């Protein structure tokens, strides 16, 4: 074995060239974001220059503090944000999936690295106000923007917000906004006895990750017809809570990972992915993906 002496330290590309993280690290207002990225190193490493360019919304410490009530976290327990299982998903939602830096931001829907869409709005005021909207309809207000890069190559854009952090829509919100698809499911979640499930599919769930096999209105209609009952009877059914829980998995399961076999639901073990059992179609929900199925 040969040992060669070198006059320097070799660093992985992601550690050596992450202009976005270097910019955040050098900001006095982004200590929480810096800590979060150091906590979820997979996201931090993904921001390497070689993987870019990136366009990122960078919430300040004040923005993180302001967002705590939306996440059900008391101000005195701010440190618990960094221990949430969904922290990586929240961080990925701050990064827009683009092939080039976007500065200034332009109005329209933009896909994030997390996979869900955020909406950019630009006011028509003499001094335009730019906002990025996720779960909160008020959006986050961009207070300043900067092009960042290395060696004079400013290939990334960082947009600072101070009023709150950008959060993706939770499962329940996605379903409630898609009434043409999921009004029956939402009505079921709104019934007594399912409060804990509804909370679990919201932002104030402690960061728990879920995957939902979400029955569409057509799926429920087929089920009701097969049982010979109407929607009111379903919503009054003592088994409704178990029926809904049977469609929810604890944890994040992506479409590509769905396979034949048993998996635990919030109710009991179930079989998914077997031929003829479920007709699956991709449906974006919070912090991953769920699926709508059409066979009741």
TrEMBL record:
Annotated FAS1 domain residues: 17-166, 169-296
Keywords, ordered alphabetically: Signal
Record has Transmembrane helix as a keyword: no
Signal peptide from the UniProt entry: 1-16
GO cellular component terms listed in the entry, alphabetical order: extracellular space
Keyword Transmembrane appears in the UniProt entry: no
SUPFAM superfamilies per record: FAS1 domain (SSF82153)
Superkingdom field: Eukaryota
Pfam families membership: Fasciclin
Full protein name: FAS1 domain-containing protein
């Amino acid at each position: 074995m040969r040992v060669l002496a070198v006059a320097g330290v070799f660093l992985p590309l992601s550690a050596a060239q992450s202009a976005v993280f270097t910019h955040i690290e050098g900001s006095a207002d982004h200590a929480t974001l810096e800590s979060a990225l150091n906590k979820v190193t997979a996201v931090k490493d993904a921001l390497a220059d070689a993987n870019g360019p990136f366009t990122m919304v960078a919430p300040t410490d004040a923005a993180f503090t302001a967002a705590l009530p939306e996440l059900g976290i008391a101000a005195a327990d701010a440190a618990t944000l960094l221990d949430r299982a969904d922290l990586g998903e929240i961080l990925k939602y701050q990064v827009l999936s683009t092939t080039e830096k976007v500065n200034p931001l332009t109005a329209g829907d933009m896909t994030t690295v997390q996979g869900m869409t955020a909406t950019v709005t630009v006011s028509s005021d003499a001094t335009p106000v730019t906002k990025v909207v996720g779960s909160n309809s008020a959006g986050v207000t961009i207070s300043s923007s900067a092009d960042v890069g290395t060696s004079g190559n400013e290939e990334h854009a960082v947009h600072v917000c101070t009023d709150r952090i950008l959060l993706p829509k939770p499962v329940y919100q996605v379903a409630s906004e898609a009434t043409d698809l999921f009004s029956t499911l939402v009505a079921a979640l709104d019934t007594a006895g399912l409060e804990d499930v509804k909370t679990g599919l919201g932002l104030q769930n402690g960061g728990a990750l879920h995957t939902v096999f979400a029955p569409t209105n057509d799926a429920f209609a087929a089920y009701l017809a097969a049982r010979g009952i109407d929607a009111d009877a379903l919503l009054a059914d003592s088994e409704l809570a178990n029926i809904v829980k049977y469609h929810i998995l604890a944890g994040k399961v992506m479409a590509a990972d769905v396979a034949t076999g048993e998996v635990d639901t919030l109710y009991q073990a179930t079989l998914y992915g077997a031929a003829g059992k479920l007709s699956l179609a991709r449906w974006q929900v919070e912090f991953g993906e769920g699926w709508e199925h059409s066979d009741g």
